[in-house]
Amino acid sequence: MVDPSLLLHGFGTVLSGYNLVALVLGSFFGIIIGAIPGLTATMGIAILVPFTFGMTPITGIVMLLGIYTGAIYGGGIASILIKTPGTPAAAATVFDGYPMAQAGHAGRAIGIATISSGVGGTFTALCLAFFAPILAKFALRFSAPEYFALACFGLAVTITLSGRSPVKGVISGLLGLLLAMVGLDPMGGYQRFTFGFAELTGGLSFVPMLIGLFALSEGFRQVEIILTAPRVSAVLTNILPRLKDLKECLPAYLRACPIGLIVGITPAIGADTAAFLSYAETKRASKAPESFGKGNPAGVAAAQCGENASTGGDVLPMITLGIPGDAATAVLMGALTIHNLQPGPMLFQAHPEVVHQIFAGMISANVVFVVLGLIFARFFAQVINIDRKYLVPLIFVTCMVGSYAINNVLYDLATCAIFGFLGYLMIRYDFPVAPMVLAQILGSMMESNYRRAVVMFHGDVTQFFMRPIAMTILALAVFTTIVAVRRQRQALKQEAAQLAALEQSSSQ
Amino acid sequence: MPPVSMKKIDILSALCVIPLCVYVFYESGRWPILPDLGNPAWIPRGVAVILFGAAVLLLGKAISGRSLTLPGRLTGADRARVLWVAVLTGAYVLIIERLGFMTTTAPYLFGFCMALGERRWTRLILFAVVVPVTTYLIFDRALNVPLPRGLFR
Asked: Which of residues 227-266 of A touch B (CB under 8 A)?
C-alpha cells in the first residue's frame, strides 16, 4: 500500500525550491512541444532529457514528468485551433474541438480540454500511487523465469500492436532484439557483434539511440513537410469553463477515466487509443449521439480526459516491473536509468522515498499543467505559429548537444545521427519505431533472465512449464498476439475496402 | 496525391534483412559454450530464424503485389531538402570535436535554415549566432555539461 507519510513528504520535496521550478518549466515546455504539430511527448522527453543531467535525480525526474503530462495535454490545443492534432494522441479531440472553434468557441473548447485533461491525469496519477506498491509487492515473488515470461509478453504485444503491418512490426522488434545483443555477453563476458569497435563493448548507447529514433527522426520528417504548416488565426475568449459545461462533461469523465487507465496499463497501446475509445464510448452512451462531431463539449472532454488518464497506466508497468507501457515511458525509463534509478520492484525496496516523490510529482504535474494551460492559453495558441524554418534546426542542435552531453564522446553523437536517419526512413516506409526501442529494453531483460533461469533449472528448459505464474504470462502472450494479429487483419481489410470504394467513386 | 505502393522498398528491406539473419545465425554459433550457463546461441539463433521468416514473408507479399501503400510520393524538392540536411548533419558530426561547438554550430544552423528556404539574412545571422551562444551558456555554464571546445581548447 501507498505510505501516506512518505507521499506527504514527497509532496513537500516536489513542491519546494528547484523541484517546483523544474516541474513548472517541464510542464511549460511540455505544453509547447505538445501544441506544435509534429512534435510528440516522446520527442519532448527525448530532447529535454539532457537538460536534466546536471540536476539531482528527483529534480530531473519531476521535470520529465512535467514534460510528459504537459505534452499529452498540449496536443489538444492544435487539434482545436487548426484541425491538426499536436500529438497523435490528440486526434480524437479534433472531432468536436475544431467545430467548437469554428463556431467561435475556441477559448471555451480549450478551457474544457484543459480541465478534462487535468481530471483524467489526476485520477490516473492517484491510481498509480495506489496500485503501484501493490503490484510491486506482488512482483517481488517473481524470479528469472517469471521475468523472462514478462519480457516475452511485453515483446509479443508491442510487436504485434504497433504499426499498420504486423510483419514490419515483427521485423522492427526483432532488429531491436539483435541490437540489444551488441556488446558483452551478460553471463560469459565475451564480445558479441562489436566488429572490433571498442566503443561497442558496452553495447549501443541507449539514450543517444532514443534521441535519434524518436526526436531526430521526427526532425527529418519536419524537414520533409516544412512548407505545409498551418497557422492559427482564432481569438480566444471565455477560457475558464463554466460550471454548467463541467456538469455536462461529468458522464464523459466517469467513462474516460477508467478506460484511459486500463488502456494505459496494456503494453504498446497508449494515449491515442485511450482517447478514441473514451470518445466512442461517451458518444455511444449519450442521449444525443448525433450532436457529436458538431462541437459537443462532452466530445472534447472525453477525448482529452481519456488521453491523459492513460499516462498513469503507462507509467505503472514501467515503474513496478521495468516494462515500459509505450514509447514515451521507454524514454522516461532511459532517463531514470541515467539518474541511477532502475525501475522495477526493487526500486520500491531500495528507494521508497524516491518512488513516493515520483507519485507526488505525477499528481502535481497534472495540477500544474491545468494552471499553466488556463493562464497561458493565448500564448500556447500562438506557439503553433512558430516558424518551422527556425524550430527544426533548433531541434537538431538540441538532439546533437543532448547526445554528446551524456558521456562527452563523439560516438554518442554519431549514434544519434545514424539512428535519427534510420528512424526517419523507418517512419517514412511504415516500419514502426517503438518496437525497436522497446525490444532493446525487453531484449536484455529476456536474454539475461532466460540464461539465469537455465542455470537455475540446471539446463532443463521444461521447468518453465512447471511455474504457474510464468506459464500464465506466456499463455497470455500467445493469446494477445493471436487476437492482435486477427484485429489488425480486419483493420487492414477495412482499409483496403475503403480505398477501393474511394477509387471507385473517383473514377465515376 | 495518389497512393504509392511500397513494393520496391519492401523488397529492398527484405533483401537487407536476410543476409543479416544468416550472419547472426553463423556468428552466434562461434560463441563459446560455458559449462552450466546454457547455450548462448539459443536466443540469437531463434531471433535470426523468426526474422528470416518475417523477411521472406515481406518479400513474398511484395512480389505478389500485396504491399501496403504510402499516402504519396516525395517530390524531388522534398527529397533534396532531406538529403541536404542529412549531409549537413553528417558533416557537423564529423567536425564538431575538431572545430568546437560554437564554430561548428553557427555555420551548421546557417546552412540548415538556408536549406529550408530561409532568405531573411539579418534574422538568419542573428539566429545562427544567438542559438550556439545560448546553448553553450545553458549547458556548459549553468548545467556544468561540457561541450566540445575544439579550436578554443
From this structure: 227
A337: left (phi over 0), alpha (psi -120 to 50) or beta: alpha
CB contact under 8 A, B145 and A450: no
B-chain CB neighbours of A410 within 8 Å are 93, 96-97
Residue A232 has which C-alpha cell? 492559427
Q: Chain B: nearest CA to A505, how far in angstroms?
A: 14
- The distance of A284 to chain B (nearest Cα, Å) reads 31
pTM beyond 0.95: the answer is no
**To which residue does cell 494552471 refer?**
A371
Which residues between 188 and 207 in chain A have a beta carbon less than 8 angstroms from any beta carbon of chain B? 188, 190, 192-193
Cβ contact A192–B31 (<8 Å): yes
Scored b (16 or more CB within 10 A) or e, A176-200 reads bbbbbbbbebbbeeebbbbeeeebb
User: ipTM strictly over 0.90?
Assistant: yes
- Alpha-carbon distance A495 to A492, whole Å? 5
Indicate whether A507 belongs to any domain: no
Q: Is A338 on the interface with B (CB under 8 A)?
A: no
Tell me the C-alpha distance between A24 and A271, whole Å: 22
Distance set, CA A131 to CA A1, A136, A156, A351 (Å): 8, 9, 24, 17
CB A76 within 8 A of CB A307: yes
In which domain, by residue range, is A460 found? Answer: 4-499
**Domain membership flag for residue A504:** no
Which class for A396: exposed (0-12), middle (13-18), buried (19 or more C-beta within 10 A)? buried
Kindly write down the DSSP assignment for every residue of chain B, as one continuous string: ---EE-HHHHHHHHHHHHHHHHHHHHHHTTS---TTS--TTHHHHHHHHHHHHHHHHHHHHHHTT---EES-PPPHHHHHHHHHHHHHHHHHHHHHHHH-HHHHHHHHHHHHHHHTT---HHHHHHHHHHHHHHHHIIIIIIS------GGG-
Place of cell 539532457: A50
Tens-digit pLDDT string for chain A (508 aa): 778 899 999 999 999 989 999 999 999 999 999 998 878 888 888 888 888 877 888 999 999 999 999 999 999 998 898 888 888 788 899 999 999 988 889 999 999 999 999 999 999 999 999 999 999 988 888 888 998 898 888 888 777 666 677 889 889 999 999 999 999 888 888 889 988 888 888 889 888 998 999 889 989 988 887 756 667 777 778 888 888 988 989 999 999 999 999 888 877 677 888 899 999 999 998 888 889 998 999 999 999 999 999 999 989 988 998 888 788 888 888 888 888 888 888 899 889 999 999 999 999 999 999 999 999 999 998 888 888 889 899 999 999 988 888 888 889 999 999 999 999 999 888 898 888 988 888 888 888 888 888 888 887 778 888 888 889 988 988 887 787 777 777 776 776 676 677 667 666 6
Q: Does A447 contact chain B (CB < 8 Å)?
A: yes
Q: Are A499 and B116 inside 8 Å of each other by CB?
A: no
| Contact residues on chain A for B92, CB-CB shorter than 8 A | 400
Number of domains in chain A: 1
CA A216 to CA B57: how far, in whole Å? 30
What SS3 class is residue A341?
coil
| CB proximity A457 to B under 8 Å | no
Classify burial at A215, counting beta carbons within 10 Å of its beta carbon; exposed 0-12, middle 13-18, buried 19 or more: buried
